[in-house]
Design goal:
Layout: H1 2-10, H2 20-29, H3 35-47, H4 52-57, H5 60-67, H6 71-97, E1 104-110, E2 117-123
Antiparallel strand pairs: 1-2
Helix pairs in contact: 1-6, 2-3
């Protein structure tokens, strides 16, 4: 039941778009965490410049060591984070299937003749 409710609550959170303060607010919104410790966790997030993009790709073992949460708080936070990561992966997968993930990138490539740089476009 907890996971289902949490998934519904987190549906609108875009992890990659969260600033440090966004992560701080997100952490504060997790009502299951020990309220006396939240301020300490939020200070650690600010001190370590932990953004949503960091949370999206960081190693959970390293994050656990940095945040130094109690076991229960860590498990609840990790569960919420895993849901957000999964939501991001699903959204990216849906975007790829709809053809929205192709991006044009311009890369300047120096040709063997250094006076004539070449320009090529790559699709990513």
């Amino acid at each position: 039941m907890f996971v289902f409710n949490l998934q519904r609550e987190l549906r609108s959170v875009k992890l990659a778009q969260l600033s440090v303060e966004g992560v701080v607010e997100f952490l504060g919104s997790l009502s299951s965490l020990k309220s006396v410790s939240i301020g300490k966790y939020q200070d650690v997030i600010r001190k370590n410049n932990i953004t949503g993009r960091v949370l999206l790709c960081c190693d959970l073992v390293e994050l656990k060591a940095v945040l130094n949460m109690t076991f229960g708080d860590w498990e609840l936070f990790k569960n919420a984070l895993c849901i957000l990561r999964e939501n991001t992966n699903i959204a990216e997968s849906n975007n790829r299937m709809e053809g929205g993930s192709e991006t044009n990138v311009r890369i300047n490539v120096t040709s063997p003749d250094k006076d004539r740089p070449g320009k090529r476009f790559f699709h990513i």
